[in-house]
Automatic annotation (TrEMBL):
<dbReference type="GO" id="GO:0016740">
    <property type="term" value="F:transferase activity"/>
</dbReference>
<feature type="transmembrane region" description="Helical">
    <location>
        <begin position="79"/>
        <end position="96"/>
    </location>
</feature>
<keyword id="KW-0444">Lipid biosynthesis</keyword>
<dbReference type="InterPro" id="IPR050324">
    <property type="entry name" value="CDP-alcohol_PTase-I"/>
</dbReference>
<keyword id="KW-0808">Transferase</keyword>
<comment type="similarity">
    <text>Belongs to the CDP-alcohol phosphatidyltransferase class-I family.</text>
</comment>
<protein>
    <submittedName>
        <fullName>CDP-alcohol phosphatidyltransferase family protein</fullName>
        <ecNumber>2.7.8.-</ecNumber>
    </submittedName>
</protein>
<keyword id="KW-1133">Transmembrane helix</keyword>
<dbReference type="InterPro" id="IPR048254">
    <property type="entry name" value="CDP_ALCOHOL_P_TRANSF_CS"/>
</dbReference>
<dbReference type="InterPro" id="IPR000462">
    <property type="entry name" value="CDP-OH_P_trans"/>
</dbReference>
<dbReference type="InterPro" id="IPR043130">
    <property type="entry name" value="CDP-OH_PTrfase_TM_dom"/>
</dbReference>
<keyword id="KW-0812">Transmembrane</keyword>
<feature type="transmembrane region" description="Helical">
    <location>
        <begin position="131"/>
        <end position="150"/>
    </location>
</feature>
<keyword id="KW-1208">Phospholipid metabolism</keyword>
<keyword id="KW-0472">Membrane</keyword>
<feature type="transmembrane region" description="Helical">
    <location>
        <begin position="156"/>
        <end position="180"/>
    </location>
</feature>
<feature type="transmembrane region" description="Helical">
    <location>
        <begin position="14"/>
        <end position="34"/>
    </location>
</feature>
């Protein structure tokens, strides 16, 4: 007796669909920021943050992990963070050194991944990376919120936002070092077995 149930392709999962939505929301967020709509940008950013959590939760809870998802999820995270911070610098909300640090770390990691693994080293996201993302996804919305008409009267909101952003930036460096170390270790292992 043959099995007539249709096997779902590896890429056809709800988490991958959510990750695709995250990619699509990035230019929407940028548009709201540069056109002077911090409230709508804030809503978009919250959706980005929730979807980042949701795709991982669904993948684990319902066994819908995939190789495509493992590759796309960190790319979506990095693109979202870079696009968000660049747009916030553009409108004067975020200090440029934070962006420079994040971009340099990501550029080095992208270069190493490209040289050693053709862009996909297949490494899991670290806890430091998750904490870093959480700090930035709290600090960046707070920065946006601090620019709304109500919150702009309260300076402490901007100060608190910058504390979260700088903590996330430092976490980005730490996560980058961990990821680069893991890349180098995997590269050495692959080179020895080749």
């Amino acid at each position: 007796m043959t099995d007539t149930t249709r096997q779902r392709p590896d890429w056809q999962t709800w988490p991958n669909l959510i990750t695709l939505v995250r990619f699509l929301l990035i230019p929407v967020f940028i548009g709201f920021v540069v056109s002077g709509h911090p409230g709508w940008a804030l809503v978009t950013l919250v959706v980005l943050g929730v979807s980042d959590w949701a795709d991982g939760f669904i993948a684990r809870r319902f066994d819908q992990g995939s190789e495509l998802g493992k590759a796309l999820d960190p790319i979506a995270d990095r693109l979202a963070i870079i696009a968000i911070v660049l747009s916030l610098v553009l409108v004067g909300l975020l200090p440029w050194p934070s962006v420079a640090i994040i971009v340099v770390v990501d550029a080095v990691l992208a270069l190493l991944s490209g040289l050693w693994f053709r862009g996909n080293p297949d490494l899991d996201v670290t806890w430091t990376g998750k904490v870093r993302s959480a700090l930035l996804f709290v600090g960046l919305p707070l920065l946006l919120f601090s620019s709304t008409s109500w919150a702009s009267e309260h300076d402490w909101i901007r100060v608190l936002a910058l504390v979260f952003v700088w903590a996330g930036t430092i976490g980005h460096v730490v996560a980058g070092v961990q990821y680069a170390t893991a890349l180098a270790a995997k590269h050495r292992t692959v080179a020895r077995t080749a």
